[in-house]
Amino acid sequence: MISTGFKRDIKLAALMLTVLLISVGCQAEAAPGLPKTSPVERIPVTSTPMDLPSLPVPASTETPSQEKPVNQAAQTAELAVSNLSVVVATATPMAEPLASPTATTRSFRQASVTPPPSMAKMRITKPGPYSKLSSPIQMEALINSGDDGLVYVDLIGEDGRLMVSEVLDFRNYDAKNFYISPEIPFQINSAAELARLVVYTRDMFGQMISLVSVDVLLMQMGSSDLTPPEVELEPYRVDTPREGTLITGGMVSINGSARSVNNNPLIVELIDEKGAVVGSGSVQVSQPSDGSTHVPFRVDVPYTVTHRVRVRLAIHQESATRIPGMVWMTSTILFLEP
């Protein structure tokens, strides 16, 4: 029978053995080769997520105790990430960088200063040149009325005599540009005669503004035989100087273009309000070719004035047939000083 003292010794030994085992376990848990880890702060994702290889998370020697401040946690996370070497695998190769744009020089043809051709503001639309006409003449014309509201129509015979002269009153018309269709009766002694039908307008000083004409064949008997009009585009255009320009220095340099109504030169005149010619010049302009409608021209016109003068810059051509006189004329207003 086991004595009471022996039992006590066994219990004491067992207790000591238990304490020894617990001590050994604690030492093994605290061994330096197995450090405790602490959680790493997450880095917010700000770009498109990509598949990354599995990477070891570095151990921390700090013992978690309390929540770190935000800025300190961010610094810790940044430090942890900066020590990592990350290799990103992509399924397709990266596109080549775009080449830097190269400046390209483009050449442009300078725009022409010549305005596009315009229809004549004043022209005879019926009859056409050398139409055979019996009395009365059924005339049609586009008119740009003058300052006095009157339109003047003359019929000139082949010897230069004035056969018919009429004044058409359009002062009650509000429009400045309109069509007219007057009847012009005539009488001739021969079977036929060459004649010129002339239409013109005047300004407030009685100076001519515009003149248009057409040569026709008058018949004593028979029916009229009409031809189409020949002049539809404005024959003379002045690009510079513009209307109302003040010119000084004794010379007017005129740049423009022309579609001559015959082969005679263009005559340029500067006419004051009293009808006196204070300057004149002329320029020969060839007929248009290569599909162009007008031919450019330049002419310098000297003038003589003693004070500021309002003048009419008039461009016209003289007749190329046996009927004398002016056949076409246009004008614009300028101011001249010495």
Can you tell me about this structure?
- The chain is built from two helices and 18 strands.
- The protein has 338 residues and is mostly beta strands.
- Among the domains are: 117-233, Immunoglobulin-like (Sandwich), CATH 2.60.40; 235-338, Sandwich (Immunoglobulin-like).
- The N and C termini lie far apart (160 Å).
- The model is unreliable at 28-112 (pLDDT under 50).
Q: What is the top-level CATH class of the domain at 117-233?
A: Mainly Beta
CATH topology of the domain at 117-233: Immunoglobulin-like
Indicate the proportion of strand residues.
Answer: 25-35%
**Secondary structure: number of strands:** 18
| Helix share bin | 10-25%
From N to C, what is the helix and strand string? HHEEEEEEEEEEEEEEEEEE
Biggest sheet character:
5 strands, mixed
Trace the largest sheet across and list its strands.
2-10-9-5-6
What form results from the Cα inertia axes? Answer: elongated
Distance between the termini: 160 Å
Radius of gyration: 54 Å
CATH architecture of the domain at 117-233: Sandwich
What is the structural class? Answer: mainly beta
Mean pLDDT: 79
The unreliable regions are: 28-112
